[in-house]
């Protein structure tokens, strides 16, 4: 592989005009496709295999005009102090608001508080339920505007009015976060390379790669039923790995120049060596992202595949466009150790020949491997302890900041009707196989009333055929509580008895039940997903490193960093540690998608650092250095670049901590702290300590396996043979 990539790098350097033209044409083509693509239609959201989804599907069949999975909104009214919602003036204002809401183009129904028994017992709080024909992600902006305008008019009349429900949900804006991440990345690259031009190349290629990826997603959104959130993960991951991959190749190019090689030869060798690591690092990320399909949640699968496609583009750009741009840059990109004049180049170094910080640190670790290993493992173990009390759930309006109308509506409903009113359960009774459907409906209602933690059970509402009915159950606890989850399971456990007694089928659905089912589905898929991703990557790393113990150490180190990161997430978002610093207003269960999301994203990024750092060590070892010295050599060449890559990644993810959305804030914090633990504790401390202790045993591989595995030559041994052959030809000619 190294020889092939070496030739590709030299070809791209020589044919730079052609290569640049191809990528500009692809970017233009993707941009035109995105601009001319039809507006995406209704994006389907389903969770196959869950009881809540089966109930939704049944409702679509038996209640065709009900729009069971449509968005909902609750407009909550509170009377001024000393007044009640039943006062004539307040009632007139509410009825006027209800009439205005009912005129919306996407509105299916609006329930009047005074006819639907939606006024609190003390008369101070009332609410109107609005049902839409499409989901919250599909709702048009005009419908959201009409909802907020109607609420504002009621406020102007003197009432306190807040709006809750998923009708106000919108895709979070992350543009400012991306700008912050790019700005910090630019500063880090300038410090790393000592050159504005060299620093600009990774940024330029990363932006082009993300541009092609996101534009392609936009162009295909309608045809492939891609949601507006599909491009979010692609942008985040594509930007981070795009900068990192280009950073590694430019850094290796400057190192080759420092050894006295011509620029075309240096470009070829940079792509042949660092490019090989880029290919395998990219493959691990792609495996992790495509592996999200194991969860069997279509939206998550599409997000993973789209992000994997963007990563593949980043790899191709790093292998071809970077050497082409280096050809354009010429002598403006300096060899390693030299800076541009603008940044202080040309000055005599204060201490010539002094080992860099990476060399000094690696030397310390090689001398004290046991102490460093114990300190690293115990530190990560302590950070991981809170993960033992991890509670999973999905965010609702109760986790929103108190400054939002959704949170204030949530609190008003809890005040007037109890905390469980924010998460009612919908019980669907299919009595098509029953001899007496009405009796079956009554039996189900009576059974549910006798359960613990139930406040209200509404009478059954049958369909026109009379063979299916819905029953609304209001729990006594808030939607995200363990008590509400226990109630959902208790109702479902009654299903067998109900079927035996009445011949009818009982299903529980609604947003609360759907959240519980999604959390369970993600939890059940975590171990199979982890086994698949780690297993495939383990096999891939055996091929890369020609070792069994190095990939095993890489996988175990990754598990340590992920557990420590989950522990930090639990401590901040569930326990409330440093919640003021992170601006976490409401603690609660950790988002159920967080563990599997962190495993997928962090594993891919962690293997990036493993491949880039250890490949340098393997290269030095293959070329004759002793194991301990190979560790030091790997750090001398790779520590600075890996550190810069990790800082860039942390900066990109940390930009999302400032989001007002608790889910985005949690993802940003979790990924940032995971990269910190993995890059600086695992890869920079535990990895060299373990390799120093293992010595030659680290590179052991059974002979039969060595013969069976393909030789991909990541270390560039073939390049040395290629160079020796070239020198022999020159001598013969002379």
Give the SSE layout:
Layout: H1 2-14, H2 16-36, H3 51-62, E1 72-78, H4 88-102, E2 107-111, E3 125-132, H5 141-156, E4 160-164, H6 175-193, H7 196-224, H8 230-258, H9 263-290, H10 298-329, H11 357-367, H12 369-384, E5 392-393, H13 405-417, E6 425-430, H14 437-449, E7 454-457, E8 461-462, E9 468-475, H15 482-493, H16 495-502, E10 505-509, H17 511-545, H18 549-574, E11 590-591, H19 594-622, H20 627-654, H21 662-694, H22 703-708, H23 717-733
Parallel strand pairs: 5-11
Antiparallel strand pairs: 1-3, 1-4, 2-3, 6-9, 6-10, 7-9, 8-9
Helix pairs in contact: 1-2, 1-9, 1-10, 2-7, 2-10, 4-5, 6-7, 6-8, 6-20, 7-8, 7-10, 8-9, 8-10, 8-20, 9-10, 9-17, 9-19, 11-20, 11-21, 12-18, 12-21, 17-18, 17-19, 18-19, 18-21, 19-20, 19-21, 20-21
Gist of the model:
With 734 residues, the chain is of the alpha+beta class.
Provide structural commentary.
It is a single chain. This protein is α+β, with helices and mostly antiparallel strands and 734 residues long. It has 23 helices and eleven strands. The longest helix has 35 residues, at 511-545. The protein is elongated and about 90 Å long. The protein starts with a helix and ends with a helix. The model is unreliable at 346-350 and 724-734 (pLDDT under 50).
Q: How many helical stretches?
A: 23
List low-pLDDT spans: 346-350, 724-734
Main β sheet profile = 5 strands, antiparallel
Shape by Cα distribution:
elongated
Distance between the termini: 31 Å
The percentage of residues in β strands lies in 5-15%
In round numbers, the mean pLDDT is 81
Percent of residues in helical segments?
A: 55-70%
What's the total number of strands? Answer: 11
Structural class designation: alpha+beta
Computed over alpha carbons, the radius of gyration is 30 Å
